[in-house]
Amino acid sequence: MSPQSIFEKLWNSHHILTDEGESLMYVDxxxxxxxxxxxxxxxxxxxxxxLHPQQIYAFTDHYVPTTGRAKGPxxxxxxxxxxxVIDMQDMAKKYGVTLFGMAHRDQGIMHIVPPExxxxxxxxxxxxNDSHTSTHGAFGCLAYGVGASEFAHVMAxxxxxxxxxxxxxxxxxxxxxxxxxxxxxxxxxxxxxxxxGATGYAMEYAGSTIAALSMEGxxxxxxxxxxxxxxxxxxxxxxKTYAYVEGRQYAPKGKAWQQALDGWRALATDAGATFDKEVxxxxxxxxxxxxxxxxxxxxxxxxxxVPDPAGIKDPQQRSEYETALxxxxxxxxxxxxxxxxxxxxIGSCTNGRIEDLRAAAEVAKHGRAVVPTWVVPGSMSVMRxxxxxxxxxxxxxxxxxxxxxxxxxxxxxxxxxxQPGERCASTSNRNFRNRQGPGGRTHLVSPAMAAAAAIKGxxxxxxxxxx
Length: 467
Ligand code: SF4
Hints:
By secondary structure, the protein is an alpha/beta fold. It contains 17 helices and 19 strands. The structure holds iron/sulfur cluster.
């Protein structure tokens, strides 16, 4: 057999049949959130059942408030938000799917809880009703975001029609510099290839830099693959992956663990496998990075200056830069570190894990927040771990606000949002217009950079604080 990439192996092992260029794929795990209510409603209208409820997991994360949760969903003041949470929880119970609801001791974001629980294991095909389902590719999974109608199809049949993406490999080699994290790596990559640089591709990350990253760092990278247009972002599993999964609640145990390991070890890309597109990146060239514009590719080393559209030849790109600067209210040529902030947000499925909070707390020890700064753990489990390590106390002492788990200000549909015109350094994944609230302005950064921005009140090179 000719050498195969991990993507080919995953695709072939889930492929059922092909018809008119589309493949029917078997789905192992499906992840729902409050907006999946529409899929449940569609199922109800069609009088269909959930075929394998034990393979569907539901989360309350997008709409849950991150303070004042003592009364549960009934205590959510906004009726629209309250009904989304209550209806979703009711629907999950009605159809018998596992629910990580608002009162669950392990509640949290749908891309943080499943790996913590061991639901995500190498070799699976995971779909989720959220584009950042690509996060789970960090475990050597095929992981897609799908819409509500596709999700309803999966609940009814445990299968999904998909057009096969092309294969792309991104090789990142070398040691990351001081103060540089996985978030800087993925922002630098998207800045290099653009927001459509991986459109139509399944992205495999390889190289010594990726191998050296923790599972948390790998999840950050795969999470943002979608921001480069990638359908899938994945990393071959290795000993770090197996060590992360072992012993978790849903992970195989005993003899089944050994059998699973044997299968997982065969997943890595074979030597000589070919790709439709190859990209390389030198880790040593990556600096702490911040976005200045309205998509994640509009990013630069924090030591840089806001670009001048006048110097851009391509008229379309020039116009995009002009409108981005207008929305962001920035002047060409001004230093990124001169950009003053109104708020800082540390959290989300990109950077709401324990390692992210440790990195932010390390910086928070060096000062006090001069702008309102929220720290929102990605899950109850992350929250408990952080509190056991005393990170909450470090944040509170530094004037940061310690909140309950959820998507919070990543998406601004839960009561947490920017006021019009407010400017925020954020560890989330999208700096689109209005993403964090109507008229809000977002600068994407790493957790350490966000904490540095909090104690300075402007975008800041975290290396200056940590050195
Ligand atoms: S944190 Fe943001 S990107 Fe992640 S699942 Fe929630 S809303 Fe989606």
